[in-house]
Amino acid sequence: MYSVRQIIKDNWKLFLKKHNVLPYQRYEMEKMLNCSRNSCNSRICSSCGKRYADNWSNQLVFRPRQHVVLTVPSFLRPILRDWNKLSLLMQSSRNFFQCLV
Ligand SMILES: [Zn+2]
Fold it and tell me: pTM for this structure?
């Protein structure tokens, strides 16, 4: 029986030959592939990511929050693939909502 981790492990080197992978993507993927008893704490890891999601959802139960979805026009989406610009949008949005409180 195959696990997602095993499928990725079997094909990771071939994938690297055919695709450009950013350093942080490679770091996270290899961290996940080497996860064992010591948690890698990667969100893409099927075991650690599940634990992370479970902890996150448990915190939501005890700390009610409001959830806001920001939708941007399609012509802006390529621009927002730049993490600095996306971060600026998120900070501006957070500041806007904090002004309402
Ligand atoms: Zn892990």
Answer: 0.52
Please answer whether residues 44 and 4 qualify as being in contact, where contact means their C-beta atoms are separated by less than 8 angstroms.
no
Question: Residue 97 Cα, ligand 1 centroid: separation in angstroms?
Answer: 35
CA-CA distance, 32 to 22, in Å (whole number)? 15
Q: What is the Cα 26 distance to its own chain's centre?
A: 13
- Cβ atoms 40, 5 nearer than 8 A: no
**Cα(15) to centroid of ligand 1, in Å?**
20
Identify the pLDDT of residue 63: 74
Contact (Cβ atoms closer than 8 angstroms) between residue 39 and residue 53: no
Of 54, 50, 27, which Cα lies nearest the Cα of 39? 50
